[in-house]
Specification:
Blueprint: E1 5-10, H1 14-24, E2 30-36, H2 39-49, E3 53-56, H3 65-74, E4 80-85, H4 90-98, E5 103-106, H5 111-122, H6 130-139, H7 154-164, H8 169-176, H9 180-194, H10 199-208
Parallel strand pairs: 1-2, 1-3, 3-4, 4-5
Length: 213
């Protein structure tokens, strides 16, 4: 049996954390390894527990979810962060995605859909609704224009196109008949050449500049 996905809950409302834990603990492939009530504590717990996925609220007292995401990136923490929010406005969700979140769901999400979202981001997928992806594209100001695509090898362009399709490293490896280690190297090279921070930005860059498959 595959090892369970380790999940950390970061939300300032104890009732929300309890509800999430109650549901997730009945999932055979998901293990809740800890909780935190604000962003600062969430970062500390993430460093201590090394979860695979963090369910993070955006609006919290003290350090909010966006700042916590930035701090996790500075610490090179590899947990995938799934935003769980009650706010639907793009101005709330977009900064979190730009800070490195792998996607987001709303707090009224169907329990089975939440479990599916956790499995999806753990597998390397990006969960973006079309209107939010459009907002991210319109706000992109990193200066990585289409000319940067010329610095990519043909294989890197293939990998980038599959990232834009939402494929995980394992799926890309299978599609291109490569090892996962080789795919990871290609992804790192793509991010470096395009001066991008993460897979989410790479996927959006590919769509904007016509590299998507």
């Amino acid at each position: 049996m595959a090892e369970a996905i380790k999940v950390l809950l970061v939300d300032d409302h104890q009732v929300v954390r309890r509800g999430l834990r109650t549901f997730l603990e009945v999932q055979d492939d998901i293990e809740v390894v800890g909780e935190a009530a604000d962003g600062a504590a969430g970062v500390d717990r993430a460093e201590e527990l090394k979860p695979d996925v963090i369910l993070m609220d955006v609006k919290m007292p003290g350090m909010d979810g966006v700042e916590a995401l930035r701090r996790l990136r500075e610490l090179d923490n590899h947990a995938r962060v799934l935003i769980v929010t009650s706010f639907t406005e793009q101005r709330t969700v977009v900064p979190a995605l730009r800070a490195g979140a792998a996607g987001y769901v709303y707090k009224d999400v169907d329990p089975d859909a939440l479990a599916g979202a956790i499995r999806s981001v753990h597998a390397g997928h990006i969960l973006l609704q079309p209107e939010v992806a459009g907002a991210l594209l319109s706000q992109e100001e990193n200066g990585s224009g289409p000319g940067r695509a010329g610095s990519l090898t043909e294989r890197e362009r293939e990998v980038l196109g599959l990232i834009a399709d939402g494929r995980s490293n394992r799926e890309i490896a299978r599609a291109l008949v490569l090892s996962e280690k080789t795919v990871k190297t290609h992804v790192s090279n793509i991010l470096m050449k395009l001066d991008l921070a993460d897979r989410t930005q790479a996927a959006l860059w590919a769509v904007r500049h016509g590299v998507a498959g």
